[in-house]
C-alpha cells in the first residue's frame, strides 16, 4: 500500500487504512490465526469496537474498517495463510448485526433432543450414524458448558476433566484453552450423563466416568470410534437443524453451532448467574456479555419480574 500511494488521494487512503489497522484491527485480531476468524470473533470485534469508540460507528466508518479488513484477508489468501476455498466472514457495514444472536429456548432444546434418536438412525450409511451420534453428544456438551465450538471443544481430552469439591458436593471442572487463554469452567450436571454415554460408545475400559477421570486418559473426547477427528461438524449440525425444523430462530436468523454457546449464556443469565461470573466461566469480557446477551434476559425472566 505504501508503494502504491503515489498521489495525494492514494496517500490519504493509505494513511486511513494504516490508522484503522493500528487502532482497531491489530489490537483486536492481532493474536488470532487469520484462517480461524469466524462469526463469533467478528461479532466480538464489533462489540469491542463499540466499547472503544463509545458510540455506534457511522456507516462510512464501518465500510472503511471492512475495506481494510478485506485487504488483509485477501493478502492472507494470496500468501497461503487461508485456503482459497474458505469463505471469509465479513465485517458489518450496515449496522444490522445489532440483532440478538440466534439461540434456543428451553422448549426448542427439548424438541431437538426428542428428535435426535430418530435423526441418528435415519441414514443410508453406517458411518453417517456414527457421526450423527457424536454430533448429538457434542451439541449437548456445548449447551451445558458454553465452551466455544471448535477452538475450545475439539482439542478437549479426557485428562482435562477433573472433580471440584465444595464441602461434600462434587462438580465437574473442565480445563479448556481458547482465544482468551486457558481457564477452568464448571459444567452443568447434565454433562455427566453425556460424557458417561460417550465413554461407553467409545468402549473405553472403565467402569464409570469417575474411574475414567481418575485415569487421566490422554485421548481426545470428541472423535469417531476409530479415533479420527470428525470433519465438517457444522454441516452435520446444519442437517440436524433442517430435519428438526429448528434452522431459524423467531427473528429469521439461521442457527449454527455457535448458537449453542449463546443459548448457554442466555439461560444462565435467566437463571440469575451474574455477568461477572458468567464472563469468567465463558472466557469473555463483561462488555461482550452485556452487548450480546443481557438484553434477552428481561423477557426470559418474566416470571421473576412480574
UniProtKB/TrEMBL annotation:
GO molecular function, one term: DNA binding
One annotated GO biological process: DNA integration
Keywords assigned: DNA integration, DNA recombination, DNA-binding
InterPro entries xrefs: DNA_brk_join_enz, Integrase-like_cat_sf, Integrase_catalytic, Integrase_recombinase_N, Tyrosine_recombinase_XerCD
Domain Tyr recombinase: 99-306
Pfam families named in the record: Phage_integrase
PANTHER family documented for this protein: INTEGRASE_RECOMBINASE HI_1414-RELATED, PHAGE INTEGRASE-RELATED
Protein name in UniProt: Tyr recombinase domain-containing protein
Organism: Polynucleobacter wuianus
Highest classification ranks of the organism: Bacteria, Pseudomonadati, Pseudomonadota, Betaproteobacteria, Burkholderiales
